[in-house]
Amino acid sequence: MTRSMGRTFLVVLDGVGVGDAPDAAVFGDQGSDSIGNTARLLGGLALPNLGRLGLGHLTAILGTPPAAKPAGAYGKIAALSAGKDSTTGHWEMCGLVTPKPFPTYPNGFPAAVMAPFEAAIGRRTLGNRAASGTVILEELGAEHVRTGAPIVYTSADSVFQIATHEDVVPIGELYRMCAVARQQLHGAHNVGRVIARPFTGAAGAYARTPRRRDFTVVPPGRSLLDLLKAAEHAVIGVGKVEDLFSGQGLTAADHTTSNDAGMHATRQLAADAPPGAMVFTNLNDFDTLWGHRNDPHGYAAGLQAFDAWLADFLAALRPGDVFLVTSDHGNDPTTPSTDHSREYVPVLGVRQGALDPGPIGTRAGLCDIAATILEQHGFQERMGGRSFLAALGAM
Questions:
Q1: Which residue from 35, 26, 3 is spatially nearest to 344, judged by alpha carbons?
Q2: CA–CA separation, 17 vs 33, rounded Å?
């Protein structure tokens, strides 16, 4: 293996899709198109920097037409994993396909789950049903404040969410309860993520705080991150990447809690990350703040903020660095559903100093991202994917 000194920056716009995937009907997501539908609803969405990289070639985006000669490589990928959540999406782009979906609980968790959990934390719980996080706070927040009983709820995803008021339950105690649940949820109830959902405020004005944490199932095998770390590359997670991989495969992490903070940290790493490093960033606000809340205006503003940030970031890259922007699933804010959507995800790429980037095409399997990064860093292994490094242009 010849070790490459070029760096990789992989940025995941969590919940940003570019049109329904071939199996969207299986998930009830026909017609989903997170970016395209948002642009149509708002009468246009100008994303000039993403457009120059080729975004307009991936779906019809009113206000961002196809570039005549894109400055980057561009394509879209359908996930292979049997799920449409952050865990399976991020794992797959790091070479780990999930063929069997994590269990979901549309009718709440059974007594076999809740009884031992309540016994272990020494508290009864409220809720235990599938619900919107903001709605269930308004329904049960006052009772939680009065009794101290944590609110447990789920969604269409495989998640066990625990909400507590920061003035009632100290944040450390909430994290401890989540760790208890994570330890107990295995076997038939191997839930994908346990999520801490702290909130503050008063009845009628409860607000979730940025101190959310995800307690994820340990990855089922060696990921791209593990390979890079074993070869002594710096592997730096930004945002919730640390949680999604249970800390495995990382040499450092910055657990940022907003898009703005994540973009700032990633820009700083463009200046500071050492040769051969991989920086893996998750920008979660598209999903948590706007997709799940059906807020197309916020979603559009978030895309425009990322687009504006992009110009300065790309200028900071060093010759040979690779930048990839993609997503883990869709979350169309214009549909009645507040859940993730089964969509193609975009992939846009730049290899700093390379000539003549071209189309990546329409692909099946986010493992192609892992294969590309492995080739960029001098590995022969491809983790079941097909590299598209050549499409990023010749050096």
A1: 35
A2: 6
Tokens of 73: 């490589």
For the beta sheet containing 278-283, the strands, ordered from the edge strand earlier in sequence to the opposite edge, are: 252-254, 235-238, 278-283, 8-13, 322-326, 345-351, 73-78, 359-364
| Strand bridging mode 159-165 / 193-200 | parallel
Are the C-beta atoms of residues 36 and 336 closer than 8 Å to each other? no
Q: What is the pTM of this model?
A: 0.93
Name the DSSP class of 20: B
Q: What is the mean predicted confidence (pLDDT) over 347-372?
A: 97
Strand partners, 235: 278
Q: What is the pLDDT of residue 131?
A: 93
What CA–CA distance (Å, rounded) separates 225 from 392? 22
Burial of 23 per CB tally in 10 Å (0-12, 13-18, 19+): middle
Task: Please state the three-class secondary structure of 89-110 as a single string.
Answer: HHHHHCCCCCCCCCCCCCCCCC
The DSSP symbol for 166 reads: T
**Comparing C-alpha atoms, which of 281, 272, 322 is closest to residue 4?**
322
- Spatial distance between the Cα atoms of 227 and 232, rounded to a whole number of angstroms: 9
Q: What is the predicted pLDDT for the residue at 3?
A: 59
Going by their DSSP bridges, the two strands 207-208 and 159-165 should be labelled as: unpaired
- Tens digit of each residue's pLDDT (9 = 90 or more) over 293-317: 999 999 999 999 999 999 999 999 9
CA distance 283 to 321: 20
Ramachandran angles phi, psi of 152, nearest 5°:
-110, 130
Q: Are 130 and 153 in contact (CB under 8 A)?
A: yes
CB atoms within 10 A of CB 313: 18
Whole-number Cα distances in Å, 257 to 147, 208, 239, 262, 379: 29, 12, 6, 7, 33
Indicate the burial class of 16 (C-beta count within 10 angstroms; 0-12, 13-18, 19 or more). Answer: buried
